[in-house]
Amino acid sequence: MPAAAIMFQGTGSSVGKSLLVAGLARALARRGLAVRPFKPQNMSNNAAVTAEGGEIGRAQALQARAAGVAPGIHMNPVLLKPQSETGAQVVVQGRVHATARAREYQAMKPSLMPFVLDSFARLRAEADIVLVEGAGSASEINLRQGDIANMGFARATNTPVVVIGDIDRGGVIAALVGTYAVLELEDAALVRGFIVNRMRGDPMLFAEGMAQIAARTGWAPLGLVPFFDGARRLPAEDAQDLAEQPRRDGAKCRVAVPVLPRISNFDDLDPLAAEPEMELILLRPGMALPGDVDLVLLPGSKASIADLQALRAEGWDTDILAHHRRGGRVLGLCGGYQMLGRTLSDPEGVEGAAGSVPGLGLLAVDTVLSGEKRLAEVHGTTLADGQPFTGYEMHIGRTTGPDTARPLLRLADGRADGAVSADGRVAGSYIHGFFADDAQRAAWLARLGAAAAPAPHDAAVEAALDGLAAHLEAHLDMGALLRLAR
Length: 486
Known about the structure:
By secondary structure, the chain is of the alpha/beta class. The protein has 14 helices and 29 strands.
């Protein structure tokens, strides 16, 4: 028998769907169920590499971890990776399928439904229950035709739906009742219940609100979930969810990160943000680079040339060069590594308009964006100190030049990766995720005059998932949720 399934849709984006599915996956896995997460369509530049050598949304990788299984390409069969304000790379079952502007993608969606249904069937064949996460808002009736992410998927698979609203942003009664009001009758018939998320204060203050929503929609109230503070220890799915870090007066080092429009794989920052002796400064547009930072970290980018231009438009290029002249360190990861070189070229228009631009010139390397995207889990050591690391590659392009003769890393298969400047203060690498390795992160902090926390990073993530599961067990009607699944 195929697994039961239940779908969680939202009144809007960022209402906590991903986090709730992760917590439920851990809670149900702890009950002995074989759980699989599934998101038909995701839009995010925060992606993860799977064992098959494909890529899926980072949120689904976290949900897989919560369920106690390895992430796989069928957990997120359609991934949209924005490259511009109106266009995105379309990844289907882990591989790049096309690049499309918004209008083109709308026309493409019906042809993607067979991939979505195939992946869903594969997961149902290996699980007891599949937790399906919708995308954006269930009430986007302007996008209902050809929909594969929300009610279109639910209708095609006859999957019962629970709608989530976020009380913290205000107007949750209107959001939930309004969603009910605009749904087509056939879609509304699939909605069986609702959850109100992120309650602050006394839950009894919203008891009447829960009753009013239930009365006006006919949906079952499945729980009022208080705000979960431990969410900050789990990877954010969207760049707008990157939490500002408080000033740490006792910090031994300060790291500044320009938050560029197409920032990707920004969970590279999470292990650093959790370090008590490190202060992580997220540079938003309009901010200047502080003069007393120890390290400038340029993270990954889905469109390196466009983000380099955005960096220059903010004047951060001047700030970074001045920081380096004062003796400061600079590290670039993936797209950030490409920006540090002498030139960055996209002759085939892979990430946008074809062309070539000068880089920051802090590394004597040149990058050409061409060839196949490399997707692989890797491990190895840093050459400077022999410290181990684990991580993954997710990039297109080839970087060459004199500074690659001083690589930053040596992979287990013998390949060298990255480059280090002659003065040793600028480095770049294509590897994501190596700060999650406790020994590697401790070595980087030591170079900056700080000590790493004794608690392993992975243990902190596991504790946060366990805490989230217990939180949901306490505040949701788990029995009703399981009875709704079919």
